[in-house]
């Protein structure tokens, strides 16, 4: 399958490399097609891996990942372009955190909204699924590195078919427990979890942890 | 030991009854000393259990619990009175959630602040420790009802001695894993976890769950 990964930071590389490992084709999108990290990604697994602008990646991908930083996501998706997003599943991994005033970070969105909902409103024909944003990127694509994968990934979205597709994809990443929290308003809670995640990270001095919902 | 429990709702009763079970004396405070639930609490275990106003409970208690609703907490503590709070440990269990516009709830505090910090600022001589706010009250006082107690309680506060005291108290409740997230600014993350908690509650249709941090 063909994927478009928007964002060439650590998260984009983790997701992109995992998709390549699983046999998919991946175009990594950056603001400029000359982006060094995008070029490095393309070189590493050519011809399965390619790179380009946000619009190139969104055009090539049948399923898209938003791996840009939360504060840049709306811009990046506007550049990607409505015609390249319409009808496609977009897995939104980003978090709208503001680190500009130091630690702890604050939220860029009020508690009555979320980045995922902002993206969905800006691109109503795109099928936004929020997932994987509650953990470090190494864990997103390799849940078994902790406790034999005995912990949870959370997701939400308005389109059942899209969530079904993302669920299968997450299983292919190794996820055994996928909790569907319902419609996209649940993204508020998923994004507002991050200030706690950041404190846990500071406390443990490692990003290698995740939550398990014990019942 | 003598405890003051501010609030006569389900949380106040759960905490108050547990403290009585453990052999402590508890005064439950309400807005009016004629509060029916407060009177019922006092009758159930007299003379170890008593009731009164917020000021009565705060005066009697050597350690205090804020079990009022988040939107009423600052008022309740103002009524409790500075002289009754000064120098004492206050375990803040409340959550500043706004359900007035339906589900999902929004936060009453911006992401740059928390109810616990507001309480600490209003009562600088009180030693505020945020704890137990991330779960249902039945679980707060009986962690073993789930998974043999193999899940986590999170806390934070500015006073190390106060956190040590609260930690011992939590152990007496049955908690085996207590994670100290540092100073009181971590209360932002602990309180912003609640919108996710509410979605998990809606998804599972039971409040009988908690998180475990898997490492």
What does this structure look like?
Two copies of one chain form a homodimer. The first copy, chain A, is an alpha/beta fold. Chain A is 39% helix and 22% strand. The first copy, chain A, has ten helices and eleven strands. The first copy, chain A, has helices at residues 10-21, 36-44, 54-60, 73-80, 82-85, 115-122, 137-140, 160-173, 187-192, 194-204, and strands at residues 2-6, 25-30, 49-53, 63-66, 89-92, 97-98, 106-107, 127-131, 152-157, 177-180, 210-214. In chain A, the strands form two sheets. Chain A has an eight-stranded mixed beta sheet, sandwiched between helices. In chain A, helix 8 (160-173) links the parallel strand 9 and strand 10. In chain A, helix 3 crosses helix 4 (73-80) and helix 4 runs parallel beside helix 6 (115-122). The radius of gyration of chain A is 16 Å and the shape is globular. Chain A starts with a strand and ends with a strand. The model of chain A has no long low-confidence stretch (mean pLDDT 98). Chains A and B meet through strand 7, helix 9, helix 10 and strand 11 of A and strand 7, helix 9, helix 10 and strand 11 of B.
What would you say about this model in short?
2 copies of one chain form a homodimer. With 215 residues, the first copy, chain A, is α/β, with parallel strands linked by helices.
The residue-averaged pLDDT of chain A reads 98
**Content of β-strand of chain A:** 15-25%
Give a count of the beta strands of chain A, DSSP E runs of length 2 or more.
11
Strand count, sense and barrel status of the largest sheet of chain A are: 8 strands, mixed
| Overall form of chain A | globular
Count, helices of chain A: 10
| Spans where pLDDT lies below 50 across 5 or more residues of chain A | none
Tell me the distance between the termini of chain A: 36 Å
């Amino acid at each position: 399958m063909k994927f478009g990964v928007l964002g060439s930071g650590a998260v984009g590389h983790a997701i992109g490399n995992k998709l390549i490992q699983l046999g998919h084709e991946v175009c990594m999108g950056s603001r400029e097609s000359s982006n060094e990290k995008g070029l490095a990604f393309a070189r590493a697994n050519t011809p399965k891996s390619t790179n380009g602008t946000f619009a190139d990646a969104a055009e090539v991908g049948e399923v898209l990942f938003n791996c840009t930083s939360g504060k840049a996501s709306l811009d990046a998706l506007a550049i990607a372009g409505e015609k390249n997003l319409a009808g496609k599943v977009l897995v939104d991994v980003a978090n709208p955190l503001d680190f500009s005033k130091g630690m702890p970070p604050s939220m860029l969105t009020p508690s009555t909204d979320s980045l995922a909902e902002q993206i969905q409103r800006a691109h109503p024909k795109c099928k936004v699924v929020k997932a994987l944003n509650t953990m470090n990127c190494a864990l997103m694509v390799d849940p078994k590195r902790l406790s034999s994968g005995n912990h949870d990934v959370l997701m939400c979205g308005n389109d059942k078919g899209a969530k079904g597709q993302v669920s299968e994809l997450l299983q292919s990443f190794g996820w055994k427990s996928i909790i569907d929290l319902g419609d996209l308003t649940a993204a508020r809670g998923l994004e507002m979890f991050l200030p706690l995640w950041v404190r846990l990270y500071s406390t443990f001095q490692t990003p290698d942890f995740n939550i398990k919902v014990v019942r």
